[in-house]
Amino acid sequence: MEGILKGVRILDFGQFIAAPFCGMLLADMGAEVIKIERVGTGEDGRRLGPYKDGVSVYITAFNRNKKGITLNLRSEEGKEMLADLIKQSDVIIENFRPGTMAKLGFDYETCKELNPRIIMSSISGFGQEGRYRNKAAMDGIASAMSGLHAINYTKTGPRPTGLPLGDHTAGVYNALAIVLALYDRERTGQGQRIDTAMLDCLFSFFETRLPGYAVNGVDIGIEPKYDTGDPLACPSNVYQCKDGWICIHAGADSNYKRFAEATRDPELLQEKYQTIENRMADYFTVDRLTSQWFGRHTVQEADEIMTGAGVPFGVVRNLDMILNDPNSIEREMVVYTEVPGAGKIPFVGNPLKLKSRPIQNRERAPLLGEHNEEIFKGLLNKSDEELEKLRSEGVI
Fold it and tell me: For a Cys-Cys bond, which of 46, 165, 224, 295 suits 42, CB 3.0-4.6 Å?
């Protein structure tokens, strides 16, 4: 079955995570995504771990279902070939530092002259405009400046989340923007420029926190009032059982009633705790009583009791538990891909589930320049002799 984006051609200059992840989401949905890399070395992600038998599997995690070519954009012939590709494409994705595409001679205005329908999307730490545009950025920098580090405060201070959420969030938002731009182009016939900043994407998660601060002075702060719990609901936290950790969210009154009745704890069942206002006023007491109840039970006991009562509840799982959970396979969120030189490796699947157009193929990431011949012959009409000359001159 054809993917829903079949017929859309995307030129992907992505490096590391944000832009490659964006391109991969669109490739999963049927777009023809052509990954363009440096001649000889490819993108820097090819040299990052994790490794299996000396082979990096990093590149496969963010580049499945794509075609791969190499092109020297500092050569005039390489630039001419890219210009010809732009004329035949729908979208450009890049996450270089702001201004890099212009230095290469391919800013949006230039690309628009080549192809008025082109959609050019740029992902960066702080955006193509604004006073921070020239600041060097990686995921952690944008996360710190967005407030995410501060909200993830522990007793040792503000800290990273442990995942590149800025990269992934920007990739998802950028993919959405591209789909919207494609939809808009169907009506107007015109392409457009997309400017996605990791800082903006992460800060967008603070929908209730910003007005909460403005109205009530409730800041995420560097030392928040409620360590790891939800400052807007109680009980809502991570709690330790006899043999592991769990998380519940029983902040809403209806959920709290189910929770308290399930515990049969007379203190938690007190009438005064039946409203969220009273629970928040006595936050630490409710949190302590909840912690004590879970401390008297195993994870399995707590899971059966809370799940049976309909309380929002989950076990704090590690990767081994997730990998071996049948649900991960049933939901196709763990998929196995053959990586040359490393064998079958499990990767994270695509969470988008379009029932009438499901994801069919899960091709591994392309080897460096693997599709040079297919793309340059098929789209640019290069002959074998021309390709050999381009290779010898270091253009491809």
Answer: 46
- Catalytic one among 139, 167, 200, 287? 167
**Model confidence over 232-289: pLDDT tens digits?**
889 999 999 999 999 999 999 999 999 999 999 999 999 999 999 999 999 999 999 9
Domain boundary among 292, 320, 348: 320
| Mean pLDDT comparison of 149-153, 217-221, 301-305, highest-scoring range | 301-305
* Phi, then psi, of 338 in degrees rounded to 5: -80, 120
Q: Are 57 and 138 found together in one domain?
A: yes
167 is a catalytic site residue: yes
- Tens of pLDDT along 149-179? 988 877 778 889 889 999 999 999 999 999 9
Q: Cα torsion for 15, 347, 164, 62, to the nearest 10°?
A: 20
Q: Is the pLDDT of residue 368 over 70?
A: yes
Rounded-to-integer distance, Cα 115 and Cα 346, Å: 39
Residue 221 lies in a domain: no
- Residue that terminates a domain, selected from 272, 304, 320: 320
- Angstrom CA distances, 353 to 182, 349, 358, stand at 20, 10, 7
Q: Are 390 and 373 in contact (CB under 8 A)?
A: no
CATH number at residue 52: 3.40.50.10540
Q: Are residue 73 and residue 169 in the same domain, yes or no?
A: yes
pLDDT above 90: residue 216: no
Query: Could you tell me if 374 and 35 are in contact, meaning their C-beta atoms sit under 8 angstroms apart?
Result: no
- Do both 260 and 369 map to the same domain? no
Beta bridge partners of 344: 338
- Collapsing DSSP to helix, strand or coil, 183 comes out as helix
pTM to 2 decimal places: 0.92
Same domain flag for 251 and 180: no
Instruction: Identify the domain containing residue 374 by its residue range.
Output: 9-204+328-392
